[in-house]
Design a protein that fits this description.
The protein is mostly helical. The protein has helices at 2-32, 39-65, 78-107, 113-131. It has one domain. Helices cover 74% and strands 0% of the residues. The structure holds protoporphyrin IX containing FE. Protoporphyrin IX containing FE binds at residues 6, 9-10, 13, 16, 52, 55-56, 59-60, 62-63, 66, 68-69, 83, 87-88, 91-92, 94, 128, 132-133, 142-143.
Length: 145
């Protein structure tokens, strides 16, 4: 069960990143193009947000099961600190940015929708990329898939 969850969480990262990049590209091209942001554009952003929320839920389940999460553990240990505090905090921040960006873009004036979605999703993507335990961050022991 634990191993299935880790693999699902690891794999869904690519879906989240792919949808985010697409949403950012789409919002940018609408903003710099005719600046008409339609229901279909909003749906792209909605899918990216939904995938992120699913990943957050999986993350919380993993948080209760992972041996890398240790409350009261040795915080000078980079792996324990990363998975107990840093990863969760950064990913929650990324998800809040996406959620606020989506809601704001939905409610604001038509000519501002694309611009707001673009900036919030872009900053969220940067935070997310910084918070992923990439395999090249060797001490964190993450995988590509
Ligand atoms: C969009 C948000 C998130 C992304 C893209 C993401 C991505 C990842 C990735 C790529 C890994 C490494 C998996 C591997 O070793 O192959 C991982 C591990 C982990 N994530 Fe997340 N994560 C997200 C949100 C969260 C949240 C919000 C939590 C906690 C509340 C969380 C908890 C964990 C834990 C505990 C592990 C370590 C699992 C283990 O190897 O034991 N994640 N995450």
């Amino acid at each position: 069960m634990y191993s299935i969850l880790v693999h699902a969480h690891s794999g869904i990262r690519w879906v989240v990143l792919g949808l985010l990049v697409y949403a950012i590209y789409n919002s940018f091209s609408k903003w710099k193009g005719n600046n008409v942001f339609e229901a279909g554009d909003r749906k792209i952003n909605l899918f990216a947000m939904a995938a992120t929320h699913l990943q957050i839920i999986l993350g919380f389940v993993l948080y209760t099961k992972s041996p890398k999460v240790m409350h009261g553990g040795d915080m000078s240990n980079a792996l324990v600190r990363f998975f107990t505090i840093e990863h969760m905090t950064m990913m929650l921040l990324a998800a809040v940015l996406i959620t606020v960006g989506y809601a704001w873009s939905k409610r604001t004036a038509d000519h501002k929708k694309a611009k707001i979605a673009f900036w919030f999703y872009l900053v969220s993507l940067i935070v997310m990329i910084a918070g992923i335990p990439w395999p090249f961050r060797e001490e964190l022991g993450g995988a590509w898939f």
